[in-house]
Input
Amino acid sequence: MQHEETLERLITLFKRFPGIGLRQAERFARFIAQQDASYIQHLTASITALHRASKQCPQCFIRHQQQTVACPICDRGNTDTLIVVEKDADAYMLAASTDAVVQGYYFILGGLVPIANSNQTSARIPQLITSVKTHSPKEIIIALAVHPDADHTGRHLSNLLKQQFPAIAVSTLGRGLSSGSELEYSDPETLINAVTHRNPFP
Output
């Protein structure tokens, strides 16, 4: 019974990985269960070392491997444009793909505002408001994935930001992204098009 309970806990942990469903999580857990002690030791040591070596930027909340406190993106000092994304991978993908179009600083929400219960969210909305007050950007681009919860989050943030900061332009990515798209898996050309043709929130 203990083996099955442990397996279920591991499956639950793997399901938290982005893009991983129940079947894949179960495959990962059963693969781990079949490995020898040496592999498990190397795996757990590598995960622990990676986590200890990474730092969280106090400005945008990106986890990074640099020696500086601020992440490489925030270190550039460009605060005219704030780009709000859900997770670290989105920020790195957008920065690598669209810097020639828009060079700004980023904010990692860390979650979305679900349609079913807007009060139950892990999104860093209070911290976002503090960041905007601190840096006073000229434009805020809400760059989220294309699915219902992300759309709902975008509208929620847009309304909140417009109420508190009416002088700041709030825009969203152009619909070069197909429905259901995650930013971290989009190709650079699509992202450039989406940022270039961004639209003001209605």
Notes: The two ends are 55 Å apart (CA to CA). Residues 37-53 form the longest helix (17 residues). The longest strand covers residues 81-85.
